[in-house]
Design goal:
Blueprint lengths: L3 H4 L10 H7 L6 E4 L2 E2 L10 H16 L1 H4 E4 L4 E4 L8 H18 L6 H21 L3 H15 L3 E4 L22 E5 L3 E12 L6 E4 L14 E6 L5 E5 L25 E12 L3 E4 L5 H15 L2 H19 L6 H26 L2 E2 L5 E2 L2 H11 L2 H13 L2 H4 L3 H5 L4 H7 L8 H15 L4 H10 L4 H11 L2 H12 L10
Parallel strand pairs: 1-10, 5-8
Antiparallel strand pairs: 1-2, 3-4, 6-7, 7-11, 8-9, 9-12, 10-11, 13-14
Amino acid sequence: MPDIDGLWADFARPIATAEDYIASLRGRRTNVFFMGERVPEPVDHPVIFPSINAMAETYRLASERPTLGGVHTPIAGLQTNRFLHVPTGPDDLVAKHEMQRELGRRTGTCFQRCVGLDAIGACHSVTFDIDAEKATSYHRRFLAFLKRAQTANVVIGGAMTDPKGDRSRPPHLQDDPDLFLRIVKRDADGITISGAKMHQTGAVNSHWLIVMPTMRMTEADKDWAFVGALRVDTPGLTYVVGRQTNDTRIVDGGALDAGNAQFAGQESMIVFDNVFIPHEHVFMAGEWSSAATLVERLTTYHRSSYVCKTGLGDVLIGAAAEAASHNGVESVSHIKDKLVEMTHLNETIYSSCMAAAYRSKPLASGAYLNDEMLSNVAKHNVTRFPFEIARLAQDIAGGLVVTMPSEKDLQNNEIGPLIRKFLQGKSGVDTVDRMRVLRLIENMTIGRNAVGYLTESLHGAGSPQAQRIQIARGMGIEDKKARARKLAGVEERRRPSA
């Protein structure tokens, strides 16, 4: 019989602060690799720690602004982090989006908890629906798990994307069945799974993972249709941390060239080698017809969660304005117009995300779900607008953003004074401050944190085409045509009966 209490023994004392969170990651037996080398302690790794610090900011916000970063949850009956909360009304989803924008402003990067949050919302309603249809006990199990997680105030990550192999084939027709995470064994105690998950945001920085199917399934795919929760340090898990542009600048000496030395995102490939999950932490196990519902609900939540990019946009707009000021052109009309355009694009993303929250509706479980159409529109905006905001930021900053000498050149006794002399901006602006702002723009538009601001905006929560498909399904074109015909005076004609 699995020792469920033992799995939670490390979390007997709730995590209250950012410092508590960072300390909770130490001493775990996680199998982590980066650049071909095993990482003995991720907290001490200079490339990984900025992503841990970005996630720690979710705890700092909850401490500083408890009604924004925290919430009283009825499931555990106590105050917990908002990233563990099931939304029970539009106000919850509005507060969630306000929190996400604020964290984007604070970090200038991905703070890595949104997939886990949105997985919680989706699992809450889908387990309820499966139980109602099939008389299973998944919802009870999920609530018990979530109550423990809320009480301990841990980080839950979400893992959905599979390698997929030949994308023209479903899971059961792949040459290698492990290209979609699958159940390889079932027994009286639980299930054993093998395969991999890709692009897993903040996986190494989390305490628990919820693993989910990645697509619609058929009955032949039932071994791939499962949901379960497991500790990040469960035996059989291997994490390969992905490269990010300019990620090793942090170890070059100094912090200027990193652009944002304090915060960064993180994605990993997770390999599952016969990993055991006890039944108490299994929330779907072969109910293939519910896989599509789970994916659709999670993506509906998650697509409007990209409101976080407006926080990053706030930072980038500010950096562009600061660069213009350093150059002495802050009052030039075309510069002001570009800043207005950047703001217009940023607030357009924000407005569609907030509209999706305000138009949310209750599901049978009591959880509220964002408006599906508006969530997809919001995410489709995110696939486009940050790229234009980034282009305009580079336009305002000028070519120096990619040709600037290094911090080591600046520190050199011979050429350092020359750099200070020739890279100065308007009078009263320190040359180093000018360089710092330009490095931040580089970091967010083509450097390490462009991963979170640009590429993730394009592919996260599904590709642009995935949103277009959902928009097409909900556009109600026949109703629109009928309304147009009516106003145009086009007579409705009966078709002759057969």
